[in-house]
Design brief:
The protein is an alpha/beta fold. It has six helices and twelve strands. The longest helix has 20 residues.
């Protein structure tokens, strides 16, 4: 897997990352969702530079011209519910893409042990297409791997890209070991540690709760 870690570069992306991490600013849910969306826009713009392009022709009010446009067919897949703001950011730029949605959640066997359960998959065929997997947090990496494995029943993608806001080194390493070698990860930050509950440290908290409110635990 080729990893593009944008925390190593100085850009406006750092400002959006600081706001979603800040314990005071992140409490504004609308601002949190918008910042996640903007991070998605930046990451997919950077990703677009690596795509295949073809020449197309068009008429303007004053003449004709040619320009290069992406030649790939895209499917964007996000993990519900935390992935929705990031999904919107990617869809803002790839507005003609097909879309897929998966519900994947942690089923806790104990306070520190859990498994990822996938219960719902809505996806078009991904056969021969460019798959863009959207998951804001790569903590253990298990969710994104389970998502990919579930989607393979809908075909084999030609190329796979992962767009994520924040990961832990352990999760990134685990994902890299499970995906095809030509997979590319576009991520805004990678933190060092996970706590005993599998959350990223220093991280930012629960992206789903910060976006949409605290959920009841069963």
């Amino acid at each position: 897997m080729r990893i593009h870690n944008f925390s190593k570069e100085n850009s406006i992306l750092n400002n959006f990352m600081s706001e979603i991490r800040s314990i005071s600013i992140q409490k504004d849910r609308m601002r949190f969702r918008r910042n996640i969306e903007r991070i998605g826009e930046i990451l997919c713009y950077e990703m677009s530079k690596t795509l295949s392009f073809k020449k197309s022709y068009l008429k303007t009010p004053l003449g004709e011209m040619s320009l290069m446009q992406p030649s790939e067919n895209f499917v964007i897949c996000s993990v519900l519910r935390a992935g929705l703001p990031l999904h919107n950011g990617v869809l803002n730029y790839f507005d003609n893409a097909e879309n897929a949605f998966i519900s994947a959640y942690r089923h806790h066997k104990s306070k520190t042990e859990f498994e990822i359960v996938v219960e719902y998959v809505a996806s078009p065929s991904i056969e021969g297409k460019t798959l863009i997997l959207v998951d804001p947090m790569l903590a253990t990496g298990q969710s994104i791997v389970s998502t990919y494995e579930a989607l393979l029943s809908h075909g084999t993608p030609k190329n796979t890209h992962i767009i994520s806001v924040l990961g832990a080194k352990k999760g990134v390493t685990f994902a890299a070991s499970k995906f095809p070698k030509n997979t590319q990860l576009w991520i805004a930050g990678v933190d060092e540690d996970l706590n005993d509950k599998g959350y990223i440290v220093p991280g930012l908290g629960d992206a789903g709760d910060l976006s949409f409110g605290i959920k009841l635990q069963h």
